[in-house]
Amino acid sequence: MKKVIYKIDEHKYEIVEVNNATEEEYVNNLNRDFERELKKEKRLKAKTISLDLLYERDGYELMDNSNLVNDDVAEKEELYQKLHEAIKHLTLKQQKVIHLYFWNNLTLREIASVLDVSFSTVSEIYYASLKKIKKFLKNTRTKP
């Protein structure tokens, strides 16, 4: 029988008896795994700053922002609905250009090629569409 050191904790060890080389290798592997995990934990602690320390050092406090998330979602949904309504007020050509530009991520030159019209025509349609959408959104803005 052979005696081997088995790590229990960072500062605690236990001497265990092993019967063969396989058992010795098993204990050594456990020790290596323990050391790896210990190093990971130390690196994480070094990179992490505690919330208590932030409060003590800088005066930062946690706040409940769950209602802010809900407000953001509601605002985005409202804006999406208004934008959808504004696009409905465009002509079919304008809708198609806006769709190809924003949803298909095509450039104005690519849209001109797809629609088989000149670049200047697509450019005019695009900017007229944006102007119309902007005017619609401005007129439907909720008053405080």
Q: Which architecture of the largest domain would the CATH scheme give at its second level? A: Orthogonal Bundle
* Average residue pLDDT: 84
C-alpha-based Rg, rounded = 33 Å
* Fraction in helix: 55-70%
List low-pLDDT spans.
Answer: none
Order of neighbouring strands in the sheet with most strands = 1-2
Beta-strand content bin? 5-15%
Helix count, DSSP H or I runs of 4 or more residues: 6
- Quick one: overall form? elongated
Can you walk through the features of this model?
With 144 residues, the chain is mainly alpha-helical. Helix content is 69%, strand content 8%. It folds into two domains: 2-58; 66-139, Arc Repressor Mutant, subunit A, CATH 1.10.10. It is built from six helices and two strands, in the order ββαααααα. The chain has a two-stranded antiparallel sheet. Helix 3 crosses helix 6 (119-139). The mean pLDDT is 84.
Question: How would you summarize the topology of this molecule?
Answer:
Layout: E1 2-7, E2 13-18, H1 21-47, H2 51-58, H3 66-88, H4 92-103, H5 108-115, H6 119-139
Antiparallel strand pairs: 1-2
Helix pairs in contact: 3-6, 4-6, 5-6
TL;DR?
By secondary structure, the chain is mostly helical.
Can you give keywords for this protein?
elongated; mainly alpha; 2 strands; 2 domains; 144 residues; Arc Repressor Mutant, subunit A; two-stranded antiparallel ribbon
